[in-house]
Batch of 2 targets.
Target 1
Amino acid sequence: MTDISLRLAAAQTIARDLGALAMSYFTDRTKLGTSMKGAQDWLTVADGTVEATFRTRIAELFPDDSVMGEEQGGGASDRLWIIDPIDGTANFAHGDRQWCISIGFLANGRPEFGILYAPALDEFFMGRRGHGASLNGKPIRVADTASISQSSLEIGWSNRRPLDEYLDRVRRCFQAGASVKRAASGAMGLAYCACGRTDGYAESHINAWDVAAGVVIAAEAGAYVNDFFASATALKNGNPIIALAPGIVDEGRRLLALD
């Protein structure tokens, strides 16, 4: 078994264990310990506990690997795990099932595999570079939508960018005939593009832990995905993200104006 295969196998088990841990908080709201890091920037006890548990498991199995996470930080490494312990924390805190655990692995700066586990929905997305993408063990592909006027797009909102910029982007897409929505989990947005539930996901600024898994899953399912990690500052400062079904790439990129 190769090093990547070994890590992917371990990550699948760890993700399911973390999902069970997160669900123990989700189903018992008295344990949530909800607080705010900023406007619409939610934090629960589960976020810290899930990430800390992940770090312990990786340290036991792969002591020379590094971990970067939303809650405890981290930096570049030749073998880097990137975790968002609860992506969609606002949903999680409100009892909405649209949230997931996101685990990505980068080797020498290149995303090799990603896992998104949404335990409240019983959905397990996985992708490995060069090996395709799956949902609950079955292969997935992007939609064959060929026109923006037939498309369903998700456009994430970031409070790190001007609100008018976001509203203008949404307006352009509506005016071009697209249906536009926002579900508040960038990781799940990429997964939904990958399996054809939407035709694209875009956000003007997003952090590495939100997309490290999803970029692999979406690309391996056949989506156009911008090279989020090409910038040397992506890990520290984040970047725009855009993923689109092949049939709407040209018009979608023009309307979204993010790459």
Target 2
Amino acid sequence: MNSTDLEPTGDRADGPPVYPQPYHPVPDPGIEHTQRFTDAYPPAGRRAYAQVVGMLSLVPLLAIGFIVIYFAVPRGDYIKLGPLYANALNVGLSVTGGLMVALIGFAAIHWAKQLMGDEESIDYRHPMVSTPQERAEFLGMVDAGIKQSNLGRRRLIGVALLGALGVVGAPAIVLLSDMGPYATPSRIRNTIEKTVWAEGVRLVNDITYTPIKATDLEIGQLVNGEPEVIAHLSGEQKLQEIAKAAIVVVRMDPKSIKIPASRQNWQVGGILAYSKICTHVGCPISLWERTTHHLLCPCHQSTFDLGDSGVVVFGPAHRSLPQLPITVDSDGYLVARSDFTVPVGPSFFERDSRHDFQKGDN
């Protein structure tokens, strides 16, 4: 006798409970099968079959509509919904995208309830570790479930389901274009690999926008700089260009630094300009050790030797700090000879790193 089949009596405080008689609060109903209407009436089964195929067949059409709406409906168009206004593009994408997912779900439910095998089964509680016999029985149940799906007799459902699930990912792929413009080689060259530095652009203080004169800099001094044209920009464009064009200008004793032959005309009497953006993850750098000529990144301690072409001497950065070629104009102010010769900032997998300066190139 199992204690769970009995109604306890007596006071638990006096000892273990007493079970005087079996207790069954709900009679065991057993397994009772009621035939479905779609099984008893074949025309109803054929109608349910057509409904499932029809719902799944609408999904590719909605996916096409989603893509057409994404590209054809202007982002600034609105539609009036009573007293409210809604963005037409958002409404169109929501309706077509939502219906795609809903129709797949409705079709799966309708298929399971009206067309799949309609048989009751009992799953008895068993130990956590399955025996070989139980595993074999499970595989048999899987085979039985496949047979009960009736896909062998109604193959068009399987074809429609595969088509619906396959095409439903197309709108998601299209939405990836909202993450930004396509990174074509020409777009990369004209955006993230290009700054506003150009021949003749003056170097100015990044706070006061005062032009930097070569004779005003002392040995060991560091100045945070920007291109003069930044002062004439505004809004998002200004922020983007500051993030790429920021520099540090340092003056060192020419006798204490290494200047390769290819960069002899990139400096003015020991005055050099480097990108302020760390090549590790893009943090701004200005921690200057004037005696060692080292520039330290405060984020992850990458250290660059500005007295040796900006090579990495410590930390996780792997690329030398890009150097800006500079000279002086007729008034003695520092100006750029050109833009940076390599992309500034952290690395990205599309860029060409063959022209990066490496230690030992001196």
